[in-house]
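User: Predict tRNA modification GTPase GTPBP3, mitochondrial-like's structure from this.
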Amino acid sequence: MSMVDVLSASESNETQPYLLVLNKMDLLGEEDQADLLKTCNSLGLGPACLLSCRTGDGIVAFLNALQEQLARMCGDPRTGSPSPTQARHQLSLQKCLEALGCFAEYQLMDLVLAAEQLRLARRQLGRLTGQVGTEELLAIIFKDFCIGK
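Assistant:
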């Protein structure tokens, strides 16, 4: 069973938002890329982004699509009326969007800074979903509790 079969047969596609990301676009010609996107659309696979991790092509378009998807799902915190009711959700979304924007700027200048921006964006999304990293958990424990005294 191909990935296309799995995605087109999935019932959750209609209820769960997603963004289909297809890598290795550098191996396809422009006509093949257009055909692939057309096929994804005709199968109802939803939004699709082509990118190349090797060359970096399509990364900015992917980040823009990701920002749009987050804004649709959670409201755009920059507009002043996001759907999450808690202030920390609004702040985390704003920081995530800012980090993704910074990544787009840094990716051509400094890959280390660009990677750091992606890490910051992931951390902010992790705060929304409850996924806290080991380092953050240890920092909370040692900050709030007196251990070993």
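The beta strands are 20-22, 48-50.
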